[in-house]
């Protein structure tokens, strides 16, 4: 089949309020700090030339608001809101990314832990990343953190960056 994804950017949503007015986890909004840290992270990624062609965004409020805080840094990026990314497992996240990667070279996923953290650890391990990096990803994958991977023609990942907000 045609093109395939050559870069994947995993971005965890920004820091969110503890409880939504509705009482529903899905409805939790970003805090001011969350908005600021996401904006800084997106600008940092863009400065490094890590520019997505498409963003797959969980349809929860906190991930939509993360996209809203990030998108100014990625003016040429298409967006697709995906209900199935809400609290998705790593396999679901990877399948959605690979599917989008059939038509987009650089795919961003804005989602949730534990799935994003688990996928980060798995891709680091598959790419034979140093054990210190894998340990760092195990220890924490905080809100507004980003993990970036390159993929070769055979779909094998290699580490291209692990970024945590300055806080």
Largest sheet: 6 strands, mixed
Question: What's the overall geometry?
Answer: globular
User: What's the structural domain tally?
Assistant: 1
Indicate the CATH architecture: 3-Layer(aba) Sandwich
Task: Tell me the Rg in angstroms.
Answer: 15 Å
CATH class: Alpha Beta
Unreliable parts? none
CATH topology: Rossmann fold
Helicity range: 25-40%
Tell me about this structure.
There is one protein chain. The chain is of the alpha/beta class and 167 residues long. The protein has one domain: 3-Layer(aba) Sandwich (Rossmann fold). It has helices at residues 32-47, 61-70, 90-100, 115-126, 131-139; strands spanning 7-12, 54-58, 78-82, 106-111, 146-151, 157-163. Strand 5 and strand 6 form a beta hairpin. The termini are far apart. The model has no long low-confidence stretch (mean pLDDT 96).
């Amino acid at each position: 089949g045609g093109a395939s994804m050559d870069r994947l950017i995993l971005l965890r949503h920004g820091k969110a309020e503890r409880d939504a007015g509705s009482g529903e986890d899905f409805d939790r909004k970003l805090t001011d700090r969350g908005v600021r840290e996401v904006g800084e992270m997106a600008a940092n990624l863009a400065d490094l030339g890590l520019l997505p062609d498409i963003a797959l965004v969980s349809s929860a409020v906190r991930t939509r608001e993360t996209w809203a805080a990030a998108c100014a840094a990625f003016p040429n990026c298409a967006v697709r809101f995906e209900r199935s990314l809400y609290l998705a497992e790593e396999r679901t996240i990877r399948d959605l990314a690979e599917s989008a990667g059939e038509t987009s070279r650089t795919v961003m996923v804005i989602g949730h832990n534990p799935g994003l953290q688990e996928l980060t650890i798995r891709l680091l391990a598959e790419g034979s990343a140093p054990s210190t990096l894998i340990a760092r990803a195990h220890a924490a994958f905080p809100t507004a953190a980003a993990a970036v991977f390159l993929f070769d023609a055979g779909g094998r990942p290699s580490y291209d960056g692990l970024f945590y907000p300055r806080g």
